[in-house]
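It is worth pausing here to work through a concrete case rather than discussing structure prediction in the abstract. The textbook approach is simple: state the sequence, then state the predicted structure, then interpret. We follow exactly that order.
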Amino acid sequence: MKPSINIDQLTSFLSENGGNHVSHLIFLEDKEIFWTSDQDVLIVYQRINNKLIVLGDPIGEEAKIQGAIKEFCDFSQRKGFNPVFYQISPQYMHYYHDSGFRFLKVGEQGLVNLQQFSLEGKKGARLRTRLNKFTRNEYTFSVVHPPYSEHFLSELKQISDSWLGSQREKGFSVVSFGEEYVSRFPIALLHNPDGKVIAFATLATDYKNTMTIDLMRKYADSPHGTMDVLFIHILQWAKNDGYHTCSLGMTPLSNVGNCKHSFTGEKIIRFAYLYGNSMYNFKGLKEFKSKFTSNWEPKYLAYKKTSLPLTLFQLLVLINYKGRPKNESGVLKSLSKKLS
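Step two, the predicted structure:
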């Protein structure tokens, strides 16, 4: 059963206060919302076992963030849970530190400065060549806006199913396809010469001046370079539409926990990276996004004095098992064996 969320209240709040790099994922309606007592800061979380795991930083005026963190910690403790914050930003780390949290780097967010984005010169030669090839072959780009017809949404579902193949959708911090969800956003489309849509991406916003390339899918048999061209078009469109920054989303860490004597937390991060890579090719995703930016903002896990390995396992379960598994302890046990 979906958590009860007042969409009108949420949309109004985000429009007035702005969101963050993951605020669009609230519209998946798979998370709980905690409002501070004054209703001026919201915190998004999911419960797993004895943890309340928050996605992103609290959303609201910066002057009220520290108080919101404390209020959520008090709420968690009254309910008998341990609070954990996932994908927090460097700008708020001192607030978490003052509340007794420790930190572990868990990923990086790719950011494109749209004012500087260009295909000109040697730096843009490879992408320019790829775009020109698709343009010569009469591939076209468009951005459409809600509402969408059932026929159009079924077309997108076919593309999504083709992209997924035998894989399953992820959850929590990773976007998944849902007709209700994609219907809330503008959608970028790449058409083949016959006019058929072969790839799409939903375009979310932080309600400020940053656009996020969110859910991106293509037909499995689409031409090589399809996503490159879709991204180029999106970045050009966003720049012309007045956005300052485009977020390419999160990528998990590589080169962590490689050594035999690495810390347990680092080994778990390494395992999560490799395990996720086997299903979603996260390593390839980082390489792909690096074609468009070299600007990466670190994101951290903020946790209190608790079992870090178990916390990381529980986070991995939330992401890789959409919907809480029936035998959570069994999942954690099977994952732990792969680390030994």
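Step three, interpretation. DSSP finds eleven helices and twelve strands in the chain. The radius of gyration is 20 Å.
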